[in-house]
């Protein structure tokens, strides 16, 4: 926990430092919500086809879904959303040819089960 899913327009592939984003977000979010850093997992999914607004080819998007265990105050969730947007902006190179919408959803996990299978050589 948390489970983080990032969907991004394929046209942003070269402009979006995905690994840098995740490695900056994980410790900052862990401190904010009081979660253990090793539990953070971020998955990235390029969007090859989408219609944004009127469907203009100059539109792009990045959406981050942060699913966290319940119990955080609404103000903490709001700060997590703002923090995520800030880090996201800092890991996206300017793309003057695109209007890019950045969105974040912070939500509680309904149920969550986890099992860790350790490395055999550790």
Describe the secondary-structure layout:
Elements (H helix, E strand, L loop, with lengths): L2 E7 L8 H16 L7 E7 L11 E10 L5 H17 L8 E10 L14
Tell me about this structure.
This protein has 122 residues and is of the alpha/beta class. It has a single domain, classed as Macrophage Migration Inhibitory Factor (2-Layer Sandwich), CATH 3.30.429. It has two helices and four strands. It has a four-stranded mixed β-sheet with strand order 2-1-3-4, covered by helices on one side. Helix 1 (18-33) runs antiparallel to helix 2 (74-90). The protein is globular, with a radius of gyration of 16 Å. The relative contact order is 0.26. The model has no long low-confidence stretch (mean pLDDT 94).
Please, what is the CATH homologous superfamily? Macrophage Migration Inhibitory Factor
Give the low-confidence spans: none
Cα shape: globular
| Count of individual domains | 1
Count the helices. How many? 2
Q: For this structure, what is the CATH class?
A: Alpha Beta
String of helices and strands: EHEEHE
Rg: 16 Å
Number of strands: 4
**Strand composition percent:** 25-35%
The structural class is alpha/beta
User: Based on the structure given, which CATH architecture is correct?
Assistant: 2-Layer Sandwich
| Order of adjacent strands in the largest pleated sheet | 2-1-3-4
- The CATH topology is what? Macrophage Migration Inhibitory Factor
Give the biggest beta sheet: 4 strands, mixed
